[in-house]
Task: inverse folding
């Protein structure tokens, strides 16, 4: 029996990258994992691979009804909602602000910012009624630094970081543990898209400089423990040497 036995972990963007790695690690730690993404075939395959403790639900986080229905399905199946990981995100459309497509720009906000709000909005009543829960949101250095071609991404991540603070302000007294995680750069499909754009310093980084998704999963698992309580309402940076030492991750 692992440390997450009997707990339900709801992970958006679980079809690949950080979300898929986290699903495997939380399942390994004994949790029931609920896998959300638009790519139904990928999350079905991952759930089949993990076994009966995994449930795949096709979901577009930019649609509130999808998120709310998925959460209720998860509770009906596993009996609780203990951790929500707002991980789903997109980097496209990479484009200069002055020439960006307004509809595509807005779609990124719908996913990266409104998707996080939808996750919190649907989870908080369930968690508060149950006495508490943990809401982790994947942030980015782009929440605090402007980068060329990323106005949609920077704006959405800055908004999502503020939502963590809001969820903490309103939820801490009701048992909600809200934290953000800025992972640094991670070797996933998103970094391939960034590299192909060649638009800003992140796209020029060497692939070897990106950390593996499993490191992010390890951090997320740790953030569910009381050891991380000193960071409630805040954002943890995985580039931080002290955090890496605490998690026993190589520098
Ligand atoms: P990734 O490999 O591109 O995975 C993104 C995931 O989000 C996929 O599972 C994708 O699944 C899902 N997703 C996208 N739009 C969605 C939607 N509308 N509804 C539901 N799911 C959706 O990227 P990643 O690197 O793992 O990124 C995960 C998170 O980490 C993102 O929030 C990203 O901004 C953040 N982050 C990444 C890095 C990095 O260096 N990689 C750095 C900082 C922060 P479908 O396409 O199947 O829906």
Result:
């Amino acid at each position: 029996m692992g440390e997450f036995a009997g707990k339900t972990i709801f992970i958006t963007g679980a079809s690949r990258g950080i979300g898929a790695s986290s699903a495997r690690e939380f399942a390994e730690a004994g949790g029931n994992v609920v896998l959300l993404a638009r790519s139904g075939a990928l999350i079905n395959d991952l759930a089949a691979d993990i076994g009966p403790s995994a449930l795949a639900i096709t979901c577009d986080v930019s649609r509130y009804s999808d998120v709310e229905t998925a959460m209720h399905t998860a509770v009906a199946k596993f009996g609780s909602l203990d951790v929500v990981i707002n991980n789903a995100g997109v980097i496209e459309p990479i484009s200069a602000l002055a020439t960006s497509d307004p509809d595509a720009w807005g779609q990124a906000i719908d996913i990266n910012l409104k998707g996080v709000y939808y996750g919190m909005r649907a989870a908080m009543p369930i968690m508060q009624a149950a006495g508490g829960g943990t809401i982790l949101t994947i942030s980015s250095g782009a929440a605090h630094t402007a980068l060329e071609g990323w106005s949609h991404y920077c704006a959405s991540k800055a908004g999502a970081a503020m939502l963590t603070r809001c969820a903490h302000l309103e939820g801490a007294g009701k048992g909600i543990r809200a934290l953000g995680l800025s992972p640094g750069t991670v070797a996933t499909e998103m970094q391939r898209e960034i590299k192909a754009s060649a638009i800003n310093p992140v796209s020029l980084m060497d692939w070897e400089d990106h950390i593996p998704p499993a490191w992010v999963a390890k951090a997320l698992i740790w953030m569910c423990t009381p050891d991380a309580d000193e960071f409630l309402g805040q954002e943890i940076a995985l580039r931080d040497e002290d955090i890496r030492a605490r998690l026993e991750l190589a520098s």
